[in-house]
Amino acid sequence: MDSTTVPITEEQSLYLHRLQAAVHRAHGCGALHECSNVVSVMLSGGRWWSGEVETFQLIGHAQAQRCFAWGFYEGRRFLAHAILDQPPVDSPSGAVMFVLAIRTARRR
Asked: What pTM does this model have?
């Protein structure tokens, strides 16, 4: 381990494993964790979405090389978003904005 590597906790490891499984379910390929990204996005009405979005390198996907993923618990159920790095999405914050735009459109 070099000086820039920070060990992850068992809880973080489980979270990343769950996200890898979500990537596999959604896109039918493997995923290697690349990095964690802190994202803050301004929502309508002056509210903010803030959280960590994980970047994964995809293994065996025909069209994309990376995926942005994050998860959360709704009650006892783990839910995740796994968004491919493809136009119009090109960044972790772009993935969050993409999901929020879809949610907003569904509510109308």
From this structure: 0.87
